[in-house]
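1st attempt posting a full record on here, be nice pls
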Amino acid sequence: MPQLSYEKEPKKALKGMKCEPFSFGQVDSHVCQEEVKFGFGVIYAATPTVGSKFTEVEPMDTDGVAMGVAVSSQPQEQDAYSEVVEASYKAKRTGAIMVAGRVWMEASEALAVGDEVQVEAAGTVKAGAMAAGSYFIALARSVAEAAGDLVEVELIPTIVKA
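the predicted structure (as tokens):
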């Protein structure tokens, strides 16, 4: 089907898309125990599959506690009208998890450049610090004027004691 219309102002990015692809960043591969949507935080699986030889992750369930963010490393899925649909890594599939670097995430409120942000279980970020036990701190690197805007978020690894 040919594309018959074009957006006058296309989106600057998609949720879960890596920012500045040639800058520093660390993206690790992990098996997703459950479906994980792009741009959502993840944690290590509480109960790994018996016999699994791989590190497994699952969607985070507590605001502010995460070990990484799922980033899209493949083409986005599109519907019949070439609109991007919310894509994800399916359960028991390998997912690309960013643990350091910059990723586009959805803001749940207005944010300024340099704000420390907290990754929320809903797949958004808000002003505030990550909770104890998280594997990174997160900083807003672009402006979000309102809830729903995409914001560039930098993940900076921290040392976590077990």
